[in-house]
Amino acid sequence: MLEFKNVGRSFDGTQGTVEALSNVSFSVEPGELLAVRGPSGCGKTTLLLIAGGLLSPSSGQMILDGRDPYEMSPESRNRLRAENIGFVFQQFHLIPYLTVRQNIQVASVAVPANEAAERTQELISHFGLDDRADHVPAKLSTGERQRTALARALLNRPKVILADEPTGNLDEGNAKTVLGYLSQYVTDGGCVLLVTHDVRAAEHATRTLQMSKGRLIA
Amino acid sequence: MDMAGDKKGLINAILALECHCTGEALPLIRKEIAGVLPNTQVIERGSRAIARAEARTKAAERAAAAIEEEKEARATLRQSRERFASVLIPVVVTACAVWVAVLGFTDVRSRRDEIGILRTLGVSAKHVMVMFMSRHVLLGVLGGVLGFVAGVLAGGYFSAASEGTKVQMIGADFSLAGLLLASVGGAAALAVIAGWIPALMATRQDPAVVLREE
Q: How many domains is chain A partitioned into structurally?
C-alpha cells in the first residue's frame, strides 16, 4: 500500500544542508499498524509528510497504492490524497469556527455530496459525539477534539491513515480510546503509519521501527 | 401741453398727478415743458415719492448685484469642491484598496493553519482561492451598501443645509439606483482587486511548512 524506497530528504538552512531523512526503506500493507518511534527531531514528521504527498523526497521514491504521487501534477496529487489518505495530528488541526459536524465534512472533497452527510452522522455516532455535533472545537475536551479529528480522517474511507503523535496531547484514557479506534480500523483492513515517541502508542502497533537522526535503525 | 399754450394768462399752474418720475427724468421733463411753455417754472412737489422711487430702484439694483455675487460665490465654491473631490476621491479609493489588501494579508497570515489543513485534506487551490475571494466580495458589497447609505444621508444633510434638498453627485448625474449600483459594484471590484494577491498567497501556502512548524 505504502512503500518507501531509499528515500532521503535534506533541507537547506542558514547553517548548511540538514539531512532530515537518509536512505529510508520500508513498506506498510493493509491490516498493518506500523509505528515509527524516535526522539523529537529525528525526522518522523518529515517521513509522514513525504508519505502524505506533501513533501517531495530529495532522493529515492515513495509509492502510494502503486503510484508515485510526486510524478503527478499538484492537483492530481491533491486528489490522490483526498481519496486515499486520512490524517491525524497531535494538535488536532480542527477549524476553530466550524462545528464538529462541519469539521468532519471538510474532508469530503472526494466523497459524493449525498453520501457525505450520511457518512458524517455515522462517524459522529461511532465516536460518541452525538451531543457535541453542533459545538465548535473550543467547547470540546481534548479527547473529543481528537475523536473529531479521527472521524474527519475516516470520512473518505481512506486506504491509509497517517498519524503524527495522535496521543501526544491526550491523557491515558483518551489515548487508549484513540489507539483502540486505530486498531479497529486496521482490523477492518485499513493501514496505519503512526509516528510517535509514545511507548503506549507503539504497544498497539503490529510492527515497530526505530528511527534516529533521519535513519531507520531497527 | 399744446392746449395750455392757447390758454395764455388763464392758466397759472398745471398739476401733474400720479406721475412716477424719478430724479433722473426731471431735467428731461423740464426741457420738454420749456419747449412748449417757455418761462414756465417746473417745481418738484412729490419729493417723497421720488425718494421712494429712487430707493426702490437702488434696492432692486442692490438685490440684483447680491444675487450675482451669490451666484459667483456658489460657482466658486462648487469649483473648489470639485477640485477637492478630484484629489480626495483617488486618495480615499487608494487608501481603501491598501486597507483591504492589508486586511487580506492579515487574514491569510491568521488562517495559515486552516489553509494548511485544508490543502492537506485535498482541498484544491482553486477552492481556497474562491473561499478567500468570496469573503472579499462579500465585504466589498457590504462596504458599498454602507457607503451608499452614508453618502446619501450625508449628501442630503449638506445639500439641505446649503443648496436645497436635491442630492447630486459632482460631475455626473446619477439616479439613486444608479448610484447604488455604482457604489456596490465599485466597492466589490475594488475588494476583488485588492484581495487578489492575498488570496493568491493563500493558494500557494505550502501545507508541509505549516505542519512542520507544529
A: 1
For residue B214, is pLDDT > 70?
Answer: no
- Residue B125, sorted as left (phi over 0), alpha (psi -120 to 50) or beta, turns out to be alpha
A190 confidence band (pLDDT: 50, 70, 90): very high
What CA dihedral angle connects A69, A204, B207 and A25, to 10 degrees? -40
Nearest to A72 by CA among A100, A47, A94, A53: A53
**DSSP class of residue A14?**
T
Kindly indicate whether the ipTM for this predicted assembly is greater than 0.85, answering yes or no.
yes
> Are A153 and A86 contacting, i.e. CB atoms less than 8 angstroms apart?
yes
- Any idea what DSSP says for residue B19? -
**Coil, helix or strand for A166?**
coil
pLDDT in tens, B6-60: 777 777 888 777 666 656 777 888 888 888 888 888 777 666 666 777 788 899 9
Closest chain B residue to A41, measured at CA: B212
Assign residue A197 the CATH number of its domain.
3.40.50.300
Residue B214 has its nearest CB partner, among A82, A89, A109, at A89
Contact B212, B113 (CB under 8 A): no
Could you list the residue range(s) of the whole structural domain that residue A152 is in?
2-216
CA A198/CA A200 separation, integer angstroms: 5
Chain A residues in contact with B120 by the CB 8 A cut-off are 52, 54, 81, 87, 93
pLDDT for the residue B46? 65
